[in-house]
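Structure tokens please, single chain.
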Amino acid sequence: MVNSDRHSMTGQGASEDGPPHDGRSPCGHGLRLSELLAARLCQEVSVAAGTLGKALEIARAEPGSAADALAIAAATANALLARVRLLRAAWADAADPLDIPALRILCAGLPAQVRVDFHGLPTECSLPAGAGRVLLNVLLLAAESLPNGGVTMLGEAAPKVVLVVPRGRNAAWPPGLATWMADPQAPWRAIESAAPHRLQGPLTALLAHLAGVRMSFALAADAEAAPPLLLNFL
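Here you go.
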């Protein structure tokens, strides 16, 4: 699912941003990433499918509760559709530029307890396909970094530089993010031992390296658990 026109992920060698030279073939690293993405997607779908199935079962077995159960089923189906639409845009090949209206629509797939504040971005803002995909993955990562809910604030720090600030109780980027952003090989090493629910951090950094998007903290990484994150699309 992860492709780049700038770097080859096949062959005998590995580019600067390609899989690490650790004795495993580049195809092996790609297979590991595919396995994790498939497992993560199955987890996302199975939770919603379980809720949907239970609601429909209640609607059949308890006529008096059918209306409420069907409302839950409809809401669950809509949430699942929005989630899959977001994950497809974030994880599959990006074909189109991403503007603010499209970004708002896709953000409907984020957890309900996480809100995205777009007021800091110019209304005419539009990102190239690869850069837009990186931003979507950063928003997914920011949502995971807000375990108790909150808001992810987006702003323009400079032309072609987007500022991402997660704000909420216990907000915290994953511990390895600074290393993954600094070293193109580090995300690959993290992916080798990652569990599906911990994949988003190294995956986001990997996609940024492959797309030529420079990610960095606006403050020292140890200054706070969730310092502002800069995305430089130059």
